[in-house]
Amino acid sequence: MIKVVSLGGSIVAPDGVDADLLKELLALVRDYLREEPSRKLILVVGGGGPARRYQEAYRRVVDPPDDDIQDWIGIAATRLNGELLRGVFARECRQPLVTDPTAVEDFPGRVMVAAGWKPGFSTDFDAVMLAQRFGAGTVINLSNISAVYTADPRLDPSAKPVDRMDWRSFRDMVGDEWIPGKNLPFDPVAARRAQELGLEVVVASGRDLPNVRAILTGGSFAGTRIGPS
Fold first, then answer.
1. C-alpha span between 138 and 202 (Å, rounded)
2. pTM confidence score
3. How far, in Å, CA of 124 to CA of 141, rounded?
4. What CA–CA distances, in Å, run from 193 to 48, 65, 74, 179, 199?
5. How many angstroms separate the CA atoms of 55 and 119, rounded?
6. Which residues of 165-196 are buried (b: 16+ CB within 10 A; e: fewer)?
7. How do residues 70-103 score in pLDDT, each as one tens digit?
8. Taking Cα atoms as reference points, which of 173, 147, 169, 175 lies closest to residue 160?
9. Residue 138 near residue 200, CB atoms below 8 Å
């Protein structure tokens, strides 16, 4: 049984590296895997604070900025975070950091760690591709966004969280265009591909680890399910 988690870089490295959260995540994952020998977990990590800071510095120097260059800067940050996670999960992860989801042939350990691939989308898309490759029906998207809201709650105090929504409604909300560094519940390019594949995506907070455990084990959780109509 393989679960795919798109782990926002804001969880691993919001500014500096959150070592305390990583320690708690390691304990959670090991407990989860220990309970059932058939369980495996794919962690696809984003760029977080380092990606934002370096992309912002690039934009301050270069006008107009190039989207592909911004993406490559972000990808480098995802790979730094990925190597950190691969080290944290060294006991469970038996292969190099995955940087091309189309080139993965096997999954020898209990945990696979993946990072950014190429420009044009975020690591959410890589997670969708790995879900397709390994037959996972759901991508668990963990970030600093606890749910999909009816509007941006930072700008609209009347915004409310949504428990369930279909892909058409979600894509009407986020559009179809990938903008480097933009903070959305789920990458628009990844959303289009997930809809094509009939996948479900769960959007939830990556800092509420009891809630993350409930998602992994099929319990009741706080967050948003996005899926086929």
1. 7
2. 0.95
3. 8
4. 23, 27, 21, 17, 9
5. 13
6. bebeebbebeeeebebbeebbbbbbbbbbbbe
7. 999 999 999 999 999 999 999 999 999 999 999 9
8. 147
9. yes
